[in-house]
Amino acid sequence: MLGLIVLLQTLVVAVSGPATSPEYLPLRVAAAEGDFAREGLDVRLRTTRAEPGAAEALAEGRAHLAATTFEAMLRFGPRLPAQPPRLVFGLTAAPPGALLVGAAHAQAIRNVGDLRGRRVGVSTPGAPEQAWLGWLLARAGISPDRLHVVSLGSRGLVTALGAGEVDAAFVREPDATRLLTEGRASLLVDLRTPAAVDGALGAGTVSAAVFARADRQPADAELAGFARALLAATERLRADRDLWLPDGLVSAAQVEQTIRLVRAHAPLPASLRLPDAERLLHLEPLRSALRPRPAR
User: Fold this and answer.
1) Is the C-alpha dihedral spanning 197, 137, 254, 237 positive or negative?
2) Is there a single domain that holds both residue 213 and residue 79?
3) From CA 235, how far away is CA 239, in angstroms rounded?
4) Which of 60, 131, 247, 280: disulfide with 265, CB 3.0–4.6 Å?
């Protein structure tokens, strides 16, 4: 056993909280079920309060990798030209959830355009889904200023939608599916799966992902083992839900579309100097992990 421990390569991974966030569940499953250890990795998950904390941990050198949103990495991640973030594994296309309409308003609100002047609930101020909500509104020709957006917390959001205190709300998984299944809300826009995101936005995006810092990223062999562990965990989770990007791969086009979406929501820091989309990706270790291993 001691020999095994010596061989394990330690990786500290900052993971956005709360621990119940479904987009980061593959990391927690891979750790709990030994997928990382089977790849020779001693992965230490360090949960942060929210997405900005994980991005800051990577920027400050307190973690080898960070699991957070693309937007948080742009706003709170590494700034120096030699330290650009590199996406090494994509998790979700958008914040997994749906824009729902309360049952009492289902006849009056049939599309995003009908939200003008309505009360719309979100979980917290600055929540990741607000950038996607802003993009949906812009596509419908509505300024966010024409809505009454209220932050109610995840539990308060579900209660308020059911009680008719808000007309619509962006509800995260698994609450969104539960409300739809119980007939307590109707679906306006679905962002629960990558395919649904493509249909709703007309283009692919990336939200949650795992990032490294270019000047201190783990070796490719370690990243390939890390990716194999996440792929194994994600495959098991897909038996119950299909929230995650196929094979963890992200294209430059998805990155560019996400940057447009984030910038439309709020300006990026003036000090941020973004490299080309291709340089924000480091996916060769993941592609290596996706290739069948040679028979022994």
Assistant:
1) negative
2) yes
3) 7
4) 131
Longest distance between any two alpha carbons in the chain, whole Å: 66
- How far apart CA 117 and CA 28 sit, in angstroms, is 41
Prediction pTM value: 0.92
Kindly state whether residues 125 and 259 are assigned to the same domain: no
Q: For 65-112, what is each residue's pLDDT tens digit?
A: 999 999 999 999 988 888 899 999 999 999 999 999 998 888 999 999
The answer to whether the beta carbons of residues 148 and 120 sit under 8 Å apart is yes
Given a contact cutoff of 8 angstroms between Cβ atoms, the answer to whether 14 and 32 are in contact is no
Residue 175's alpha-carbon distances to 24, 109, 157, 227, 253, in angstroms, are 16, 20, 10, 29, 30
Work out the end-to-end distance of the chain between its first and last CA atoms, rounded to an integer number of angstroms.
Answer: 24
Question: What integer pLDDT is reported at residue 5 of this predicted model?
Answer: 44
Q: How do strand 148-151 and strand 119-122 relate by DSSP bridges?
A: parallel
Range of 21's domain? Answer: 8-93+204-290
> Radius of gyration (Cα) for the chain, nearest Å?
20
Half-sphere exposure of 260 (CA within 13 A, CB side): 14
The residue count for the chain: 296
Residues 99-153 pLDDT 10s: 999 988 889 999 999 999 999 999 888 888 889 998 999 888 988 888 888 888 8
Dihedral of CA 134/25/212/46: which sign?
positive
Exposure of 109 in the CB half-sphere (CA atoms within 13 A): 25
Tell me, rounded to whole angstroms, the distance of Cα 16 from its chain centroid.
10
**Distance from the Cα of residue 214 to its chain's centroid:** 20
- The reply to whether 1 falls in a domain is no
Question: Do both 113 and 51 map to the same domain?
Answer: no
Structure tokens at 102: 């309360």
Nearest C-alpha neighbor of 170 from the set 99, 243, 105: 99
**CATH label of the domain that carries residue 62:** 3.40.190.10
